[in-house]
């Protein structure tokens, strides 16, 4: 069961996620979003860009040292991990079979995907289990 029902992301942080994804094309990018949970909503207040160790256009693996530093930063500031983001440089923002199979967080975080199937990037969020995905509710705020 997810710890919150809606992920609220400030538009400026979402623009940073999309910029990161665009800068890494043709490779997948990856990173973390953190913040606080209140009244069933996850409020994003911080973004952590993480290097994709695989440097692949179809898969990602987060850099262990960068993950350690991001989690230390979160702990020091009392933040919770709310979402993992990555990109699909040539396809829609829909979880691939590989995304589902490599999910190690269960439904504890949203998986935010930036897709570049069209000229305008599209961002969608997903709750992943070991076998399937269902779309998460996103609230983008100015």
From TrEMBL:
Residue ranges of domain MPN in the record: 6-142
Family matches, as PROSITE patterns: MPN
Keywords: Hydrolase, Metal-binding, Metalloprotease, Protease, Zinc
InterPro entries on file: JAB_dom_prok (IPR028090), JAMM/MPN+_dom (IPR000555), MPN (IPR037518), VirAsm_ModProt (IPR051929)
KW Phosphoprotein (keyword) present: no
Cell wall biogenesis/degradation among keywords: no
One Gene Ontology molecular-function label: metalloexopeptidase activity
Name used for this protein in its record: MPN domain-containing protein
């Amino acid at each position: 069961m997810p710890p919150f029902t809606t992920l609220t992301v400030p538009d400026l942080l979402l623009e940073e996620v999309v910029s990161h994804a665009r800068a890494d094309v043709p490779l997948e990018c990856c990173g973390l979003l953190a913040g606080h949970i209140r009244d069933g909503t996850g409020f994003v207040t911080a973004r952590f860009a993480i290097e994709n160790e695989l440097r692949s256009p179809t898969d990602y693996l987060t850099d262990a040292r960068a993950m350690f530093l991001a989690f230390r930063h979160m702990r020091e500031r009392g933040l919770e991990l709310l979402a993992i983001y990555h990109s699909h440089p040539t396809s829609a923002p829909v979880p691939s079979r590989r995304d589902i199979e490599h999910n190690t967080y269960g439904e504890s975080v949203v998986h935010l995907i930036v897709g570049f199937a069209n000229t305008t990037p599209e961002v969608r969020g997903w709750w992943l289990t070991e076998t399937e995905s269902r779309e998460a509710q996103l609230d983008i705020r100015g």
